[in-house]
């Protein structure tokens, strides 16, 4: 008997591992069975009961914007192979796509799904809007990436003109003494030549800063003004009893403002990461009725700059060394907001030159 118990004890890990593997195989088999057999049966029943295919149900049962477009974009390709192929062909030519190509894709999809366009006119309209958003987003990613990869060139007159415009807009009453000057620090650059600060985000950083300064000038000037101000912390009883020398030594009264231009370039990086990862689809699909454009991205940047400024004040950091902590926390908060399919970060943004959709 002791030998039998010892054998059972010795074999227990192997038995447990076998049971675990068996359950995993069974789970995968049931999932395969559901995807290949049961789901197709359910789809057949749904279509017979409702008289609509999956694409029709998505278009008719979801309001315009991210709820509808995301479901169309991520329709399972294993169950809609031909639909996915048509969409992929359309996206391959995102930069040169013509409205006629979108219409042809819609005609092919409706023929594939055996949908009569005469009795379902709204379906074509809804599908067209969503496909324009999908293609536009892909196009926007490529356009933004191109700007990000283009380095600032001080020999390029267009680049220099944009930089001078930025100075004149943010410092209208101050004459710049020279192209290379410590005055650039007044608007938040690190040194006497701003071009060195654009290395990370290329021309994209300059485009965004100039757009903010020109299209929402009052807000940009206010954020710049606040960023230059020192913040005096409320003193505790222990701090109040300190001598002036002790106070200066502890640096309790130092400024916790930040460099406007550098933070703008950093927020540009944050906006770019949201765009490239696809997290920004929720927002852009909700504010751009058709194709999201560079203007939509720049408006989003302006919103993020103002929202980060408010967040920075709320966080009340001890000094600028806490910037990365605050930025990461802010990034996580934005990501959480964008998980809501009805989220529009700035549906009524003042810098907008378009009629944005407030869902």
Automatic annotation (TrEMBL):
<dbReference type="GO" id="GO:0005096">
    <property type="term" value="F:GTPase activator activity"/>
</dbReference>
<protein>
    <recommendedName>
        <fullName>ELMO domain-containing protein</fullName>
    </recommendedName>
</protein>
<dbReference type="InterPro" id="IPR050868">
    <property type="entry name" value="ELMO_domain-containing"/>
</dbReference>
<feature type="domain" description="ELMO">
    <location>
        <begin position="158"/>
        <end position="338"/>
    </location>
</feature>
<dbReference type="InterPro" id="IPR006816">
    <property type="entry name" value="ELMO_dom"/>
</dbReference>
<dbReference type="Pfam" id="PF04727">
    <property type="entry name" value="ELMO_CED12"/>
</dbReference>
